[in-house]
Amino acid sequence: MLKFATAAAAVFFLLTDVAHAQLSETEQRIVAAVKQRTPAALELLERSVRINSGTLNPEGVRAVGEIYRAELDALGFKTRWIDMPPSMKRAGHLVATQEGGQGKRVLLLGHLDTVFEKDSSVPLWERQGDRVRGQGVNDMKGGNVIMIEALRALKKVGALEHANVEIMFTGDEERTGVPLQMARADMVAMGKRANYALSFEGSIKRDGVDTASIARRSHGSWTLHVKGKAAHSMGVFSAQSGYGAIYETARILNAFREQVIEPALTFNPGLIFGGTDVSYNNDTATASAFGKSNVIARDAQALGDLRYLSPEQGERARQKMQTIVSTGNLPGTSATISFTEIYPPMPPTEAGRTLADLYSKASLDAGLGRIDIFDPSLRGAGDVQFVAPYTVGIDGLGAQGRGAHSDDEDLEIASIERGAVRAALLIYRLTQSASR
Q1: Backbone angles phi, psi at 127, to 5 degrees
Q2: Which residues are CB-contacts of 72 (< 8 A; sequence separation ≥ 6)?
Q3: Residue 210 CA neighbour count, 13 Å, CB half
Q4: What percent of the chain has pLDDT over 70?
Q5: In what residue span(s) does the Peptidase M20 dimerisation domain sit (predicted)?
Q6: Which one of 201, 282, 335, 430 has the largest count of C-beta atoms within 10 Å of its C-beta?
């Protein structure tokens, strides 16, 4: 709490200092440097998008990483590749560091992988007027390019040399490697060193206004196992034969729906299967079941996700769900539930709100309009959540597009320049503030 209070105060005074300022001479040159690179930035985006980098295509992920690594090397960053164990079946992460020795420490986050694997039928790159359709063009190679172009503009005007900036491009954001603690250990260490974390997932427009995120809900899973008595269906509902596993599964899921509802909390049963015998293959996310309509189901399973905004809300939800599973079981049945947290929650903080105000001020000063805070219940999970307990974070600084994760994922080309201008000004103002 002390760190958050200190951070909030620091951002407040920084915001106060620039509250009545427009762009300084240096900031005007930063904006000009971004705009001068607009055609080249689109070319950089195209080069990276034309390489398939689905999470399970480690060669493609690394190839995209090498493109960005060359750009960062040219900007004077010290770059390195962090390999993951072969058993994890992931490409690893690209890390870059600029130790300037003064000002606040800023951590920048992106990811190299996409949801589109090598067998995807989605075109790699398809120009459509002022938009581009392609694999990961919005989520999040557009954001990666915005980050690099913002840093390039700072470098050109001499504002990067003394800044303290660390960068991590993960190679498994879409399908995180296991064990999770190993996959994100380096990121957490970087987060603990940073005063601010800026993540470049796609920006979202709501009611005509651009937004950013200072809160993101957790991403976790739950597995429900239910047992009944296999018997002839003529005895269903009797004391001897019971109700069977499928009826008990239905009771439990409906009780979840009726009793566990809270604002910003969701729990979705994405797969249900039951019968006399059932099995599930985690590698292929497929289930199989054997059963007959005249036999009471002996086994059933339900797999779902769980999303919450704070650790306290998550604990309440788990306790309520556990109580429903373990009490009030239908005759002849029993059930157990297990939980796994993949992405921790990122609850809103005052420090985060103040950082969002500073980002909005940079946008307004550049003539690009205000930035509103996005409703976390309308967004999924992201890497910034792993560092949120240790620093002040903001997400959604990337490109604007439509249909992320779908066959029609696209990007508004003009959002690359807008995003790079905003990010460059924010990074400049943060790194020019006093050291802690």
Answers
A1: -75, 130
A2: 79, 96, 148, 151, 167
A3: 26
A4: 94
A5: 214-330
A6: 201
Residue 5 predicted with pLDDT over 70: no
CA separation for the pair 15, 196 (Å, rounded)? 14
What is the pLDDT, as a whole number, of residue 434? 56
Give the pLDDT band of residue 8 (cuts 50, 70, 90). Answer: low
Question: Residue 150 has what DSSP assignment?
Answer: H
The mean pLDDT value of the chain amounts to: 93
pTM for the predicted model, two decimal places? 0.87
Whether the Cβ atoms of residue 424 and residue 154 lie closer than 8 Å to each other: yes
> At 344, which amino acid appears?
P
CB-based contacts of 57-66 (< 8 A; 24+ apart in sequence):
57/117, 57/118, 58/89, 58/90, 58/91, 58/92, 58/171, 59/91, 60/118, 61/91, 61/112, 61/113, 61/171, 62/91, 62/92, 62/171, 64/112, 64/141, 65/91, 65/94, 65/112, 65/169, 65/171
Q: How confident is the model at residue 433 (pLDDT cuts 50, 70, 90)?
A: confident
d(CA 280, CA 302): 10
The number of beta carbons lying within 10 Å of the beta carbon of residue 74 is 11
Neighbours of 20 (CB within 10 A): 7
- What kind of fold does domain 2-216+346-431 have according to CATH? Aminopeptidase (3.40.630)
CATH 3.40.630.10 domain residues, the chain? 2-216+346-431
Q: What is the structure's pLDDT at 101?
A: 80
Torsion angle, CA of 222/223/228/234, rounded to 10 degrees? Answer: 90
- How do residues 205-244 score in pLDDT, each as one tens digit? 999 999 999 999 999 999 999 999 999 999 999 999 999 9
Q: How confident is the model at residue 19 (pLDDT cuts 50, 70, 90)?
A: very low
Distance separating alpha carbons of residues 109 and 384, to the nearest angstrom: 7
**Burial (0-12, 13-18, 19+ Cβ within 10 Å), 77:** buried
**pLDDT value for 1:** 46
Residues of the chain with CATH 3.30.70.360: 219-343
**CATH architecture classification, 219-343:** 2-Layer Sandwich (3.30)
**How many CA atoms lie less than 13 Å away from 310 in the CB half-sphere?**
8
Look-up: residue for tokens 């951590």? 107
